[in-house]
Amino acid sequence: MADNPSISVVIPVYNEEESLEILYSELSQVLEPIANWEIIIVDDGSDDDSFPVLKKMVNEGLMQSDGIHPNVLGHKQIENIIWERLNKYLEK
Description:
The protein is of the alpha+beta class. About 40% of the residues lie in helices and about 15% in strands.
């Protein structure tokens, strides 16, 4: 995950515990040639084990995280995160 990404991919997931590891692995391979990138995965209120799988992926070092939070965000909060990241990028 880059401090100043040139591309951000935001992925809302809902009940995707079975596909999260493959999704992250394949997408990060596609993005690897790009110098600065980040993948933001937002658990959209899944009632399966999507969130625990994301935590496990971070804990096992399969993906990096600058924060993983258990609370479910609504669309406005996600929009705020995107604008915050964009403003951070534009300030540099």
